[in-house]
Specification:
Layout: H1 2-16, H2 18-25, H3 28-31, H4 33-62, H5 64-70, H6 76-81, H7 89-130, E1 145-148, E2 155-158, E3 164-168, H8 169-174, H9 177-193, H10 195-208, H11 213-238, H12 240-251, H13 264-274, H14 282-294, H15 297-311
Parallel strand pairs: 1-3
Antiparallel strand pairs: 2-3
């Protein structure tokens, strides 16, 4: 059990500190945002699984009740392989720390979801009061849409059941049909990929554990990569130039091409659409995705290794 806890700690620290820092310095995530989002999720899953499995092993060693429930169906040889009879003081402290971390993580995620639902409900009620009738010339095939009377061009996606697209009359007047189609495809890309769940999870973890590099980078990169992924969805259907022009038209009044930090991502997105970076080959994408999917199995293998060895 001591060896398992030490190995799980090493894997968790490695996945939480040096790996995310190296990933943020890489250039390939800009070329493959969907793959990069998958890699970030796998890293987070690895750390969370390390903490969860270490918590279960530590609780089984410290508390006889937990041990009886966890190892009840296991043969005596498996229980003996974990050497749960004695728990060193550091294991007790680690178990208490992990239990507090698990409770805090659950509370942060629950808080984020409750706050998001409250904000979404208020926003929906407020927007419905401001929404005029849908223009008769707008094709109904574009799906459920809420149109707001506003001179500034804007469009965004509001999560919910069902997701809803919000477009201002300024956007309808300023954008061409193809540009509007690109904007709506971009927003539908967010809805189909359920990016809201990723954003909520990353925000909750970064808020609860701001000093852990993985969670801080996960939050920053998720907010960035979901936009790049939605841009790719729109550009595949409507073209890179059309999507870039739509992005410029929607954000020109905000200073999309300025050097201000708040608008820097918009400028990078436009440059990326006008000069698409070379993408990874299909083989490299498949390899990266497979390797990332195997990483969360490492804490499970470490946890179950003594039991599997005892049975063999």
């Amino acid at each position: 059990m001591t060896v398992c806890l030490l190995l799980l700690s090493v894997v968790a620290v490695t996945a939480a500190v040096p790996v995310p820092r190296a990933l943020t310095r890489s250039e390939w995530p800009d070329r493959e945002p969907v793959v990069a989002l998958w890699v970030w999720q796998c890293l987070v899953a690895t750390v969370l699984l390390c903490c969860l499995t270490a918590l279960v092993l530590g609780a089984a060693a410290v508390f006889h009740t937990v041990r009886d429930h966890v190892f009840a169906p296991a043969p005596p040889a498996v229980t003996a392989a974990y050497d749960l009879s004695t728990a060193p003081p550091w294991a007790v402290a680690l178990t208490v720390l992990l239990a507090c971390g698990a409770a805090w993580t659950t509370a942060m995620i629950a808080r984020e979801l409750v706050e998001a639902r409250r904000r979404r409900g208020q926003a929906r009620a407020h927007l419905r009061e401001r929404a005029p009738d849908l223009p008769a010339g707008l094709p109904p095939a574009r799906g459920p849409m809420l149109v707001l009377e506003d001179e500034y061009p804007d469009a965004w996606w509001m999560p919910g059941h069902p997701p809803q697209l919000v477009v201002t009359t300024g956007a309808l007047h300023r954008l061409t049909d193809h540009q509007l189609d690109a904007v709506l495809t971009h927003e539908r890309g967010h809805a189909r990929a359920r990016h809201d769940w990723l954003l909520h999870l990353s925000t909750a973890l970064a808020t609860g554990f701001p000093r852990i590099p993985l969670f801080a980078h996960f939050c920053d990169q998720t907010h960035r990569l979901v936009e790049l992924a939605a841009d790719d969805t729109a550009s595949r259907r409507c073209g890179h130039l059309t999507t870039a022009l739509a992005l410029i038209e929607l954000n020109q009044h905000r200073g999309v091409l300025s050097c201000a930090s708040s608008h820097r991502l918009l400028g990078e997105r436009v440059d990326r659409l006008l000069q698409p970076p070379p993408r990874l080959g299909r083989g490299n994408r498949a390899l990266t995705t497979t390797v990332a999917a195997l990483v969360p199995l490492v804490p499970l293998l470490i946890t179950f290794a003594p039991g599997l060895t005892a049975l063999s």
